[in-house]
Design goal:
The chain is α/β, with parallel strands linked by helices. The chain has 21 helices and eleven strands. The chain has two domains: 141 residues, Rossmann fold; 189 residues, Hypothetical protein af1432, CATH 1.10.3210.10. The chain is elongated.
Length: 471
């Protein structure tokens, strides 16, 4: 395991390095270059309980080493007093989580200030040797090496709390391929236990092994259905739960496949979304609570369900069957995509302009995702007819410039036209967030959507704007 050690006091840093070398089997090395350090790591791969320290003399050097070794550094030992330092700045924006031990003089830092870190603990400088050694030994005993992308499923902690009690091992992630077992199977822990851990450590995701997911899936579905049946559930609570549920379902499909059990969870998510939408959905209600942050695919899909139903209601298509089709299509249409930036792309022209940002295999997957998502829908048991057609056509355009089939207006189904405009509108909304104006969207898109069924959708949006349904 690779450890980054940076403490501004050279004497303390050298003392801690010496003690770690003798007590935790640390291999302390001063390297002239990152290439030498990487080579040494490869040679020491057999020392499974050994640590290697990358020493840094100042905050800037520590931040640079964290950045250059984003996936290689497992634990960072850094000062916790200066929240305005370069090292804190890096930890706030880091993409790959790193485990951190803070050493402080006056007071420990707030873990919520460093979302790019998994805080193992904070140690007062007076107890630096004993405290750090204890935390490192504990981490070494619990750490599990694995291919995280294939063996573990990430579950948002707020959702996992709702699925308690579980009789499964629960892990947190230290690095790309290292996990620490937080709760052992058979341990007696409650929702309050996990909630307290979440509130103090601010760990957004926890992990379950793929072969231990069945119990979570069962509890997850029950929690969703209980929420649907609860009279006191608010639209905001339902909408938030629908987003978190989408995120979990999306991950489970990619990890486990679209099994019958996960299909049942997906149906429960649809029920939550339909309850959130209600029988009389209003676009302004959605805009009032709209936030641009969060998991893009989850936010995009749940907002799309609401917007599609708002438009259908204005067109006097507000039947339960129509709302169900639009909500299921919204949930499934991008389910085969995993790259959030790629999912933001709406046209082939935009894809061509940004093709250099993505590997060729991802570009190909984008071209194919409407067809693959439609295939996924067809494997979905007991859903309304035509949902697969809506999903297949969601990137078509009335003038024939869309994909995958390049259909023109006359060959695009009426409900698909609603979904296509809603899909475009949601992208417009999320890109602008609080600056969104429905009139701006209509001014830019009215000409493109001036034919046949598309014209009816634009007319519905114009009625909504004139009635004050959105600014």
């Amino acid at each position: 395991m690779r450890v980054l050690l940076y403490l501004p006091n050279k004497d303390v840093r050298e003392l801690l390095g010496f003690q770690l070398s003798s007590q935790v089997k640390v291999i302390l090395r001063e390297m002239d270059s990152e290439e030498d350090a990487a080579g040494a790591l490869r040679k020491d791969d057999a020392h499974k309980q050994a640590y290697e320290i990358l020493a840094a003399a100042n905050s800037e050097e520590a931040a640079n080493k964290l950045s250059e070794n984003a996936e290689a550094i497992d634990i960072a030992i850094v000062p916790g007093d200066r929240t305005d330092s370069v090292i804190f700045g890096h930890l706030k924006t880091r993409k790959h989580p790193v485990a951190v031990i803070f050493v402080y003089e006056k007071s420990p830092p707030d873990p919520s200030r460093v979302p790019g870190a998994t805080v193992l603990g904070s140690v007062p400088i007076q107890e630096v040797v004993e405290g750090v050694v204890k935390l490192l030994k504990s981490s070494a005993e619990k750490a599990v090496e694995a291919d995280g992308d294939s063996e573990y499923c990430p579950i948002r902690t707020t959702l996992l709390i709702k699925a308690i009690p579980l009789h499964s091992d629960i892990y947190i992630r230290l690095s790309k391929n290292k996990f620490v077992k937080l709760f052992h199977a058979g341990m007696k822990f409650t929702q309050d236990d996990m909630r307290k851990y979440y509130e103090t450590k601010k760990v957004e995701y926890m992990y379950l092994r793929r072969n231990q997911m069945d119990e979570f899936v069962t509890n997850f579905r029950k929690e969703l259905m209980d929420l649907v049946a609860r009279p006191s559930a608010t639209p905001a609570e339902l909408q938030e739960t629908a987003e978190v549920a989408f995120e979990a379902i999306h991950e489970m499909i990619h990890q486990l496949g679209f099994t019958k059990e996960i299909q049942e969870v997906a149906k429960a998510q649809v029920a939550v979304t339909l309850r959130a939408v209600g029988k009389n959905p209003k676009l302004q209600d959605l805009l009032d609570g709209l936030k641009a942050k969060g998991d893009y695919l989850a936010r995009h899909s749940t907002v799309l369900a609401h917007v599609g139903c708002c438009i259908a209601k204005e067109m006097e298509w507000a039947s339960e069957a129509t709302f169900s089709k639009l909500v299921i299509a919204a949930m499934m249409h991008d389910m085969t995509l995993q790259n959030h930036e790629l999912a933001r792309i709406n046209t082939l022209t935009e894809l061509k302009e940004r093709a250099g940002e993505f590997p060729p295999d991802l570009v190909k997957s984008y071209h194919l995702h409407p067809s693959k998502a439609a295939d996924l829908v067809r494997s979905f048991e007991e859903i309304p007819a035509d949902v697969d057609a809506i999903v297949l056509q969601h990137h078509e355009r009335p003038g024939g410039a869309g994909f995958p089939r390049g259909l023109t207006n006359n060959y695009i189904a009426p409900l698909s036209a609603v979904f296509i405009v809603a899909h475009d509108l949601v992208q417009f909304m999320l890109d602008r967030a609080e600056k969104f104006q429905l009139g701006d969207f209509l001014a830019q898109r009215k000409t493109e959507y001036s034919q046949g069924n598309f014209r009816k959708v634009i007319t519905a949006l114009e009625k909504m704007m004139s009635a004050g349904g959105a600014s």
